[in-house]
Design goal:
By secondary structure, the protein is an alpha+beta fold. It contains 2 helices and 14 strands.
């Protein structure tokens, strides 16, 4: 399965490759095929087995921080589709334009971001999608008022980025810095 809105990213280099092949411009054709293969891998969106309890990771990647919120850095080889960590109602969505510094650095506090507040039975949970140096587009799949299930797709960030999620007081963090997590599958917090 491919992420929403990604088909043009794959078809465009394939069409260029086909045209270049017909014109016997083989180096360009090869580059087009390589790019289409890269985008196919990058925009993959596999099904996940979401646990029925606890708080799941909103993103694939490596845990950078667990102080007050869990921060996850998504590398190019990670799936970039983000998921709801808990069931609830999308209460508020706040998009902010900004810079594109590396998402893993301290200077990324001024980067482009999209903050999704989900009202859950444990309190509000804020999932913040943060664009990185290569990321040029944050895509949000949900709207204010939408009901979301644990593990449901809520958006994606194209080409490297970070996701931060707040942990309600009723839950305790179940991951540590350096852990690898998978969106919608890995448990990041449990009930006290």
């Amino acid at each position: 399965m491919l992420a929403k809105g990604s088909i043009n990213w794959i078809l465009t280099p394939l069409i260029v490759a086909l045209g270049a092949g017909l014109l016997k411009l083989y180096p360009i054709a090869v580059v087009g095929v390589i790019m289409a293969a890269f985008f196919t891998i990058f925009f993959r969106d596999p099904e996940r087995d979401t646990p029925v309890a606890d708080m799941v990771s909103p993103a694939d990647g490596v845990v950078l921080d667990t102080d007050k919120k869990v921060s996850i850095f998504m590398r190019c080889r990670d799936v970039h589709v983000n998921r709801a960590p808990l069931p609830g109602v999308v209460k508020k969505i706040e998009y902010r334009k900004g810079r594109h510094t590396p998402a893993f650095s301290k200077g990324s506090s001024k980067n482009e971001r999209n903050k999704i507040t989900i009202e859950t039975e444990y309190g509000d949970v804020i999932v913040t999608q943060i664009a990185g140096i290569l990321a040029r587009r944050i895509v949000c799949y949900v709207e204010e008022g939408d009901v979301v299930e644990r593990g449901q797709r809520i958006g994606m960030i194209r080409f490297g980025s970070r996701v931060e999620v707040t942990i309600p007081d009723a839950l305790r963090v179940a991951v540590k810095k350096g852990d690898r997590v998978r969106a919608g599958e890995s448990i990041i917090a449990r009930l006290e």
